[in-house]
Amino acid sequence: MAPSLSTASDSWDVINFAVDQGHGVKGLADLGLKTLPNQYIQPPEEQITNSTVVDDDAIPVIDLSNWPDQKVMNAICNAAEKWGFFQIVNHGVPMQVLERVKEATRRFFGQPAEEKNKHSKDNSPSNNVRYGTSFTPKAEKALEWKDFLSLFYVSDDEAAALWPSACRNEAIEFMKESEVVIRRLLEALMKGLNVNEIDEAKESILMGSKRINLNYYPKCPEPELTVGVGRHSDVSTLTILLQDDIGGLYVKKLNSNEWVHVPPIDGAIVINVGDALQILSNGRYKSIEHRVIANGSRNRISVPIFVNPRPSDIIGPLPEVLQNGEKPIYKQILYSDYVKHFFRKAHDGKETVDFAKI
Ligand SMILES: CC(C)(COP(=O)(O)OP(=O)(O)OC[C@H]1O[C@@H](n2cnc3c(N)ncnc32)[C@H](O)[C@@H]1OP(=O)(O)O)[C@@H](O)C(=O)NCCC(=O)NCCSC(=O)/C=C/c1ccc(O)c(O)c1
Ligand SMILES: O=C(O)CCC(=O)C(=O)O
Ligand SMILES: [Fe+2]
C-alpha cells in the first residue's frame, strides 16, 4: 500500500516501496515528501555542495559539420586526452530523433509502477532488459535519486519481443541513427593511436555491443543531501549521451579536484571516453569521473548509449600503442568480467579500472 503524505518518511519501508515494489524514486517524488528519506542521504563528501565547482573552464564543444577535417579529428583526440569529455554539434543525428527518444523516455517513466516493474530484475524474462532504481541498491550504503531502464541490444527481433513498447522504436532509432557519428569518432580516435584501419576484430572490441539506458531523475526534496548518480566512470568504449535542458551533470577535471558543469546545448550530444577505451589506449584517452546532482524543482531525463566491446572480447592495450616500447599499464581481461565487477559494487569513482591494472 502506498503511504500517505503525512507518514514520516522513515517509519515505513522506503526500500520495499521504491526498490522491491518498483515505485522507484518517481513513486517517492509523486508522494510529495517534504524531507528526503534517510536511505538517500549521501555522506557529506559525496554532496556537491562540499566539492569545488569551477565555472572558468568547460569541456570542448566540437563542430562536426566539415567532416572529414584533420583539425576536427585532432580536436577530438585532444579532448579525449585532456578532458575525456566533449560535446558535439552538427553531428548528423536528426533533431526529431533526439526529441522522439526524450519523449519516449518520459512516456516510459510516466507509466504506473506495476507496468514498469514488469521489466525489473526479478520479473523481466531477460537479463538484457532491466528497469530499476538507484544503481545497485543491495550493495549501496546510500541510494541514488534515479530510476532507469537499461536495454542491452542483441537484435531487432529480440528488441521487438522484449523491449517495452512505450520506448522501443525510439530507442532503436536513436541507436541506429547515431551509428555513423560513432564510427567517425572512433576512426578519429584510432588514427590518433596509429591505428589506421578498423578491421573486424577491432570493430568488435570498439563497438561490438551496445547498451542504451533511459534515465529519469524526478524532482527531489532536499536535493543537496543526495545525488542523482554518484561519482563513477563508464565502463564503455565511448558513451553518447543525450541530456535534456535541465542540467546537473558534472565532470571532474583531469588531475585536479575541481568539477565543471556540462551545460545543456540544444541539439548537442555529450561524448565521453569509457574505461574500455582508456585501457585500449594504455591510458592516453581518459575515462573521467562524473556525477549528476539531484534537482529540487524539475524532473530531468538523460539517454546514454554505451558503445562497448562484446562481452566475450579480451581487451588490453592495443599493439599499435605499445609498438614504440611503451610499457603496458593494463593487463588483458575478459570484458564481461570487467563489467560484472563494475555492476556488483556501488559507485566508487575511478576504482573500477584498478581491476585491470598490472
Ligand atoms: C553486463 C553483463 C555482464 C551482464 O551479463 P549477465 O550474463 O546478465 O551477467 P549477470 O551475472 O547476470 O550480471 C552481472 C551483475 O550485473 C548486474 N547488472 C546486469 N545488468 C545491469 C544493469 N543494466 N544495470 C545495473 N546492474 C546490472 C546484475 O545485477 C549482476 O549482479 P548480481 O545481481 O549478480 O549481484 C553483460 O551483458 C556484458 O558483459 N555486457 C557488456 C556490455 C555492457 O553492458 N557494458 C556496460 C556498459 S554500461 C556503462 O558503461 C555504464 C553504466 C552505468 C553507469 C552509471 C550508472 O549509474 C548506471 O546505472 C549505469
Ligand atoms: O544523466 C547524465 O547526464 C549522466 C548519466 C550517467 O553518467 C550514466 O548513466 O552513466
Ligand atoms: Fe556515466
Automatic annotation (TrEMBL):
Enzyme class: oxidoreductase
Ranges where the Fe2OG dioxygenase domain occurs: 208-309
Biological source species: Oldenlandia corymbosa var. corymbosa
Protein name: feruloyl-CoA 6-hydroxylase
GO biological process, one term: response to molecule of fungal origin
Cofactor: L-ascorbate
Disordered: annotated span: 110-132
EC number(s) on file: 1.14.11.61
Biased composition (Polar residues): 123-132
Composition-biased stretches (Basic and acidic residues): 113-122
SUPFAM superfamilies: Clavaminate synthase-like (SSF51197)
Transmembrane domains' residue ranges: none
One term of GO molecular function: 2-oxoglutarate-dependent dioxygenase activity
